[in-house]
Amino acid sequence: MKLNDLSSYWMPFTVNRQFKAAPRMIVGAQGMYFQTDDGREILDGTAGLWCSNAGHGQPRIVEAIQQQAAKLDYAPPFQMGSPAQFELANRLVDLAPEGFGQVFYCNSGSEAVETALKTALAWQRARGEGTRTRLVGRERGYHGINFGGISVGGIVGNRAMFGALLAGVDHLRHTHDPQRNLFTQGVPEHGADLADDLERLVQLHGAQTIAACIVEPIACSTGVLVPPRGYLERLRSICDRHGILLIFDEVITGFGRLGTPFAAQRFGVTPDIITMAKGLTNGTVPMGGILVREGIYETICAAAAEGAVELPHGYTYSGHPLACAAALASLDVYREEGLFERAAGLEPLWQEAVHSLRGLAPIVDIRNLGLIAGIELEAGPNGPGTRAFEIYRRCWEEGVLIRVTGDIIALSPPLIIEEGQVAHIVDTLRRIIAQVD
To answer: What does UniProt give as the signal peptide span (predicted)?
Structure first.
């Protein structure tokens, strides 16, 4: 076997044949930079994959993982526990908006969504509302890649290959309104009424059939769609009126991305369930979970027969010792280095920098909030997505990592980014966007 043979690995969300013809190999990472196999440094403009919020190679996190592996490498999570699981749960409840009570662990954002959906269905049944089995998602929403997630998700390319998916799922319209909200800096002013789609679904199906509505506070994976002012408040009000659980998918927006622990706090809207992953461990060890509001756990437990497992759900690696150690250390780093506050302080500079690209010929919109930005381009002459991917490829060659989805460039740097690095990312984009047809 040749050590450099690329054929055996089937890569995720990758044009495999294209990549293997011209690989982009990462062999190291430190701070704001990746290192490539040809000795170059790549400035990370995407926090890896929206996850390395404290940057790479954080000594405290590395040491915590190493020490935990030497002390307790694995503990079965069913019918037994380890201390770090409970310590972390308490820390996360303290970090969450007021009124949250429990944490359930899993291994990824996709699993967190499945856990949230199953918990919502279980809660409705436990409180005597077993007819509530319908789930509501949103067009252009991304909720991972398991069957529940792509069913409530609304990205067509992620759904088309896999058949009918889950029955009893509906979707709200997405919130992107280019006629009224182009080049908005921060929260758009128009579109709160789109939340009324949920009210129409209630009238169509009956509230007694709907268990939960799940949305990303900001739809990041589809290209950074920031919710209109008042939209999330309106969703919350409709859910309250009709007994529907509201789930915020905060896999991306959690842990400081918007300058607050969770987007729920940034928007001042408290959901019933929050999903989390990515920044939970700073991307170092796979981990996900959900936070649930007080009363959900208690209702499900009270409905179970004495001696029965209250929620028949969980994973071999739920609350894995290494993941818990990484998460606890990550929370320490976020707190001690003031990274959430740092992100909030950098937001005006970040906003001004990304919006300085307005006026370049192919750019048709720029959207931002916190340390997130989406730069939308006209489709290139060779078809949708080709212009953006060529910009991605050239940025890599010039030492900057960006992310593209269709014709949209998405940026989400680690929260440790310096002002000069913001300028470097934006100046590189300015130069390359002007060069690409």
So the answer is: none
